[in-house]
Design brief:
Helix 13 (about 255-275) crosses helix 15 (about 295-310), helix 14 crosses helix 18 (about 340-355) and helix 16 (about 315-325) packs antiparallel against helix 18. By secondary structure, the protein is an alpha+beta fold. The strands form four sheets. Strands 1-2-5-4-3 form a five-stranded mixed β-sheet. Strands 6-7 form a two-stranded antiparallel sheet. The chain is elongated, with a radius of gyration of 26 Å. It has helices at about 10-15, 30-35, 85-90, 110-115, 135-145, 155-165, 175-185, 190-200, 200-205, 215-225, 230-240, 245-255, 255-275, 280-290, 295-310, 315-325, 330-335, 340-355, and strands at about 1-5, 25, 40, 50, 55-60, 65, 75, 100, 105, 120, 150. It is built from 18 helices and eleven strands. It binds adenosine-5'-triphosphate (ATP) and magnesium ion. Adenosine-5'-triphosphate binds near residues 91, 97 and 131.
């Protein structure tokens, strides 16, 4: 049995980037052998195991044969006779298909090191077109490695176009779409992710709503340049879309609630937040209420961050002070007058409105 380091850990180390996680491939073993050594099997369809101590992923060397539609439509073949070269051949990109022995020797049958040097993201084989997830992965790697000068090879882009045209992108689960998108948004140049998807025809299929978001790219770039967190980046991406379009996009991507809520609020309230002088006192209070600013001050702060980022010159301080003033109204004192609950609410609003005029 031989164990090799593979994938992102080898790629990133050769590029001098921090290694985030390590993936291993095991050649010449069976599931039984690994289980007896204490590894835990996690793959339902694939022979993937977790190391008993490190928790890192160890996959038995395997080959794959397309047997159905989509990212999971594979017949997996794994036995001790599958070679390292065969396993590396089923991988997406040459730069992800370099293996390293524990002595530090590199095994690189598909020219990954040369492509690292010339900054090319290139498919390993024509089998690339068998898995639509690769379109998203390549676009994500293009964004992640953009600062080093990486580009997608024209032939690879052509295969990505083939995948987009095949309709297979539509078989990807929302979970997959979201996890790749969120990771891509979290890179230094997330706009490159959109660019690459656009270049191969996947953008319109995966994110049709963004066709209407004329400043999506620019807004996203601003949020990324400010090192804003992913939630803000996603809201920036959706900025300028109608709330219904934000909803549709969030549903297709299965975006977690904190993302969809922030993006939805921003799209609904951007104009009001940007121009409080055009609102009367009840209108201003309504904005605070719709943001749920009294109960969710941190999320309100996220909206103000978006305001500062995407509407330079807007008065974020106005809203901070508006919230602080409203909070200074003494609810307990109103309640102590003994009026009904409904009346307390009405008086509270009236007092707050007075302070927002
Ligand atoms: P990251 O830094 O994002 O972890 P990675 O390249 O290690 O990048 P993983 O998802 O951890 O990505 O996968 C490990 C390796 O498995 C990849 O480098 C690649 O060789 C292979 N791989 C993963 N997903 C696919 C896929 N859909 N098609 C082909 N090969 C894949
Ligand atoms: Mg990895």
């Amino acid at each position: 049995m031989n164990i090799y380091l593979v994938g992102g850990a080898v790629r990133d180390r050769l590029l001098g980037l921090p290694v985030r996680e390590r993936d291993w491939v095991v050649v010449g073993a069976t599931p039984q052998v690994l289980i007896e050594l204490g590894y835990r099997q996690v793959g339902r369809d694939f022979p993937v195991f977790l190391h008993p101590d490190s928790g890192e992923e160890y996959a038995l060397a395997r080959t794959e044969r397309k047997a159905g539609a989509g990212h999971r439509g594979f017949e997996v073949h794994s036995d001790p006779s599958v070679t390292l070269e065969e396993d590396l051949r089923r991988r997406d990109l040459t730069v992800n298909a370099i293996a390293e022995t524990d002595g530090g020797e590199l095994i690189d049958p598909y020219g990954g090191q040369a492509d690292l040097q010339t900054r090319v993201l290139r498919h390993v084989s024509e089998a690339f077109v068998e898995d639509p997830l690769r379109v998203l992965r390549v676009a994500r790697f293009a964004a992640y490695l953009h600062h080093l000068g990486f580009e997608v090879a024209p032939d690879t882009l052509a295969l990505m176009q083939t995948l987009s045209d095949s309709g297979e992108l539509e078989t990807l689960s929302a979970e997959r779409l979201w996890s790749e998108t969120a990771r891509a948004l979290d890179t230094a140049h997330p706009g490159v992710f959109l660019d690459v998807l656009g270049q191969c025809g996947a953008g319109d299929r995966l994110f049709p709503e963004l066709r209407a978001a004329h400043k999506a790219y620019e807004n996203l770039a601003r949020a990324a340049a400010a090192k804003a967190d992913v939630e803000l980046r996603f809201a920036a991406l959706c900025s300028g879309l109608e709330p219904a379009a934000v909803d549709a996009l969030c549903q297709r991507l299965n975006a977690p609630r904190r993302f969809s809520e922030l993006a939805g609020l921003w799209s609904a309230l951007e104009q009001d937040l940007a121009a409080p002088d055009r609102l009367d006192a009840p209108g201003r209070l309504q904005v605070l209420e719709r943001c749920d600013a009294f109960r969710r001050p941190q999320r309100f702060e996220q909206l103000l961050l978006l305001l500062a980022l995407l509407r330079p010159g807007a008065d974020t301080e106005f809203w901070r002070q508006a919230l602080a003033r409203c909070r200074s109204v003494d609810v307990a004192a109103i309640a102590a007058t003994g009026v009904s609950g409904r009346e307390v609410g009405a008086r509270l609003r009236a007092e707050r409105e007075k302070l927002l005029g």
